[in-house]
Amino acid sequence: MRKTSRRTFLALAGTTALSSLAACGSNTVQTGTPPPSTAYSAGVTRPKPKPVDLAQWYHPYPETGVQEAVTRYAAAYQKSKVAVQWNPDDYETKLNAALAAGPVPDVFEGQVTVDRVRQNLLVPLDDVIGPVRGDFNASLLAAQTVDGKLYGIPQALDTQVLFYRKSFLQEAGVEPPQTLDELVDAAKKLSKDGVKGLFAGNDAGAAALAGPLLWSAGLDYVKDGKSVGFDDPRAATAFGKLHELNGSLLLGASTDWQDPVPFIDGLAAMQWTWLWNLPKIQDTMKDDFGVLAFPRLDASGAPSVPVSGLSSMVHSKSLNPNAAKDFVKWLWLERTDFQQEFATKFGFHLPARLSVLDKIPTAGDAAKLVRENGRAAGPLWTSSANTALVDALGRIARDGADPAAETKKAVEVVKAELGRLSA
User: InterPro entries from the entry (predicted)?
Assistant: First the structure.
């Protein structure tokens, strides 16, 4: 999720859906003069059904103009009256309370979780996305899916990439790394004259690189929707590469890996960070940089870029779920002009639809990386599971702890968490 700002609560409207479609008269053919409710002769137009009321919730995006844009999108919809509610900080707490006890947001943004599905709070949206399912990154859709049903339509996405400074690599005689061993070797050669080879966070990359390391080995957080995806010796091999980077990593930076300042200031020749930092990097370095996916472990692994973002969902307690689904389909599947504007005008983000993404000239290499290498953590990957894995990686990276033993500890925690979710 993008970081929210602290703004005054602005609720344009927050009413729940109340009205239903007005009933039409009988279609039975009668003789004589029909009653007024059925007297629809040639040239007489049937009254249009009244649009239902829908409430749509957003968290407060920090970028200027987003609130005005989403309000404009809602006003352009003709089939329902959509009231946009802009929520203050701690959106998740307020949303969870509303999902459980009301007032009901018919349509809302957030992340699909197993708990929300198990509590029957979400409406399946497979019929909504059906015709264009292939126009989304498959891993991104898998992250919206529980028990074979899809519950969220991605609105926009963000990704992380490996930025590298071309001139630094050229001076060191280093090619952009394609494998983990090449990354380790490049980082060592680039660490000189007060510059470190790589910055991936002040925790030595434990938090930012957990997923990419798994994917580099051809593994995942969870597999088959039920078991630990990294209960495999290859995971320990990949994790051990973090410790091999010791001495080549920038640590103790004034900002963490999400901020491109260390890279812009020339403190690191390469940095793993969010693609949304591209405009800042471009303003400073012009064309003296490139972007890469995180390298593969070996020929049996794969390069990757994490993809994530918020999705649009429909509340199961909505009084008008079909109308809510129609609105979600219209906004996030049919109105590609709105989708492109929402993703690109208010900060550098990417449209979730691949066909729309391909139309963004500034996306360039990033669009290709998302299409070919985009990976997402699924709804079964919880904060407890993530903490266990990141803590294990931290001990491996900083302390040189045994990768196999630390991986086993994390596997046991994740097994227990998956057991809880399946109970």
Answer: SBP, TAT_signal
Instruction: Identify the three-state secondary structure at position 268.
Output: strand
Domain with CATH 3.40.190.10 in the chain: 10-32+50-155+309-367, 159-307+382-422
Q: Give strand pairing partners of 374.
A: 305
Quick one: how far is CA 328 from the chain centroid?
17
CATH of domain 159-307+382-422: 3.40.190.10
* Coil, helix or strand at residue 323: helix
Question: Which is it for strands 52-58 and 107-110: parallel, antiparallel or unpaired?
Answer: parallel
Sequence-ordered list of residues with C-beta below 8 angstroms from that of 422, at least 6 positions apart, any chain: 226
Three-class SS state of 319: coil
Q: Which residue has the higher pLDDT, 25 or 158?
A: 158
Please give the structure tokens belonging to residue 347.
Answer: 């900060």
pTM: 0.85
For the chain, the first-to-last Cα distance in angstroms comes to 28
Question: How, if at all, do strands 52-58 and 80-86 pair?
Answer: parallel
pLDDT given at position 366 = 82
- CATH of region 10-32+50-155+309-367: 3.40.190.10
- The dihedral region occupied by 194, where left means phi > 0, alpha psi between -120 and 50, and beta the remainder, is left
